[in-house]
Write the structure tokens for this entry.
Amino acid sequence: MQAYNLTEDERDVLQELMNVAYGNATAVVADMLDAFASLSIPNISVITTNELLSTFAELKNESYFFATQSFNGEFSGESAFFIDQESAGNLAKHLELENEADLDDAILELTNVLTSSLTTKLSQEMDTEVSFSLPSLSKVSIESIKETPTFQQYSQVIVIDTDLNFQDQKIHGKIFILTKDESIQWLKIKLNSILELLI
Amino acid sequence: MIYLVVDDSKLARLSLVKALKTNIGNAEIFQATNGLEALQTMKNKSPDIVFLDLTMPEMDGYEALPKLLTINPKAKIVVVSADVQTKAKEKVIALGAQLHIQKPINADKIKEILELI
């Protein structure tokens, strides 16, 4: 397996593109929830799936709602959104949802809006287009997370780790974009061409 | 006219400086990578116009904005941010910013901004 690393400049460009994309996506979700989110600086890294999975062991809550949405194009992969049970409960309270089916539906819609806005804007900035599959939702424990199909498909991933943080509503989530080797190669070329235009 | 571009991202700073130079030629443009550096540059160079990002390490734009205006109340602060939530815009205007502009920025957008302020 060939290892890919991002240079400092590549990481900076991707972080800034992600920042813009995430800002747009968050505004859409904030309108949807009638809430205000505090934005954090996305943390960008290229790591193996095993390394990513080991970071989940540090998570404080035992079970999570885990929603994913795959995207295809020159840049392809899968967006993953994690929301812990407590935050999901607060989301249900905030939206005045009455049962578990409504909560599942709300998380799926939130994921759909968040990840498709995020990936669409990111793709636009990189002058490419992507198509989306329907998002899927599962409830997973930290112990069983490595068995989810998403993580079995990727050996090495670009992890764009950022928080969805609605402090007043106590709703916190994590977003990851997982990509395959071909997309990492494509992305490196694209990031360098963006930077070269400015120097 | 002296300009200050404050952003932790090299890409964002390069884009803004390039867009500025397209409009104003060889003006004096300083750069800072966070709020703390911006305060130092404000003390030392007294820029007239500051382009300020919000999400930065060390000191973010929300914290830096009123402090920059305390050092130089005449400075014009333009917030350039990816945070396009209405409440974020309202907050920075209440803190004293002249404008809140959505990233990414280009030469045409800078031209409009410079005409507005």
Notes: The radius of gyration of chain A is 16 Å. The mean pLDDT of chain A is 84. The first strand of chain A starts at residue 43 and ends at 48. Residues 8-33 of chain A form the longest helix (26 residues).
